[in-house]
Amino acid sequence: MARSFGRLCLAFAFWLVVVPLAFAQDTKPIIVFAASSLQTALNTIAKDWSAQTGKPVTLSYGASSALARQIEQGAPADLFASADLDWMNYVAERKLVDPATRTELLGNTLVLIEPAEGPPTKLEMAPGFDLDGALGDARLATGNPQSVPVGRYAKAALTTLGVWNAVGSRIAGADNVRAALALVARGEARFGIVYLTDARTEPKVRVVAPFPSSSHPPIVYPFAMTAASIHPDAAAFLAHLSTPAAIQVFEAEGFAIIK
Question: How many Å apart are CA 38 and CA 84, to the nearest integer?
Fold first, then answer.
């Protein structure tokens, strides 16, 4: 009887340790590192997915450049969503993402914005357009052209259109696209260059005009699981981003779907 009682106690102790650990594993959130411009759409998609599955998702937003470097430094993440191909390629070259899971899902539109108050500015996005004159001594907000994807796209577009040399010195290079958007919304920059999806989230700005798609590299959002991820639900959430329900959210926010 003593031996049976001992086995019972051992089994009970095992249950006390293993069951809570299993429960903790089941409820551990999927950690997603995503470009700032995905914030509104991914918040909605993750909330809906968690409500349906009971699986939590933690979303961390920032410039793709900063997120890629954080992954390189060992920051825990299960998925990475970049706003351009370069930073996804950066982590891929270092074998930090699983290449079999990589998918290029979304596109976007580059636009010139201004504060919504006051008379609208009329500018035609054509070679040599007078952005310099419209800007005056004020600042032009966008992402840091050296590293942040939206800033890189902006520099490429302005260079193609022949106006970078005239306005480049007045660039207010923000850490990410939402920070650039905020500068314009607060009236701290006369114009900004952001994505259409971000402009649509902020009622204090309006779109002056879109940039020709031919003026800059295609805006592509690649997604992939990180090589270090062992989360059992990470692949399922990544797959969910291509479902009709998620696509509907992305399209409602203004993203283009890459077939």
Answer: 12
User: How many C-alpha atoms does 157 have within 13 Å on its Cβ side?
Assistant: 27
Predicted TM-score (pTM) of the model is 0.86
pLDDT tens for each residue of 19-62: 343 344 457 999 999 999 999 999 999 999 999 999 999 999 99
Average pLDDT value for the chain? 91
Q: CB-hemisphere CA count at 13 Å for 191?
A: 25
Q: Which residues contact 78 (CB under 8 A, 6 or more apart)?
A: 30, 31, 32, 225, 226, 229, 231, 234
Strand ordering across the sheet containing 30-35: 57-62, 30-35, 79-81, 220-225, 103-107, 256-257
Kindly tell me the burial class for residue 28, based on how many C-beta atoms sit within 10 Å of its own C-beta (0-12, 13-18, 19 or more). middle
Phi-psi region of 150 (alpha: psi -120 to 50; beta: other; left: phi over 0): alpha
Q: Would you call 117 helix, strand, or coil by DSSP?
A: coil
Tens of pLDDT, residue by residue over 183-201, are 999 999 999 999 999 999 9
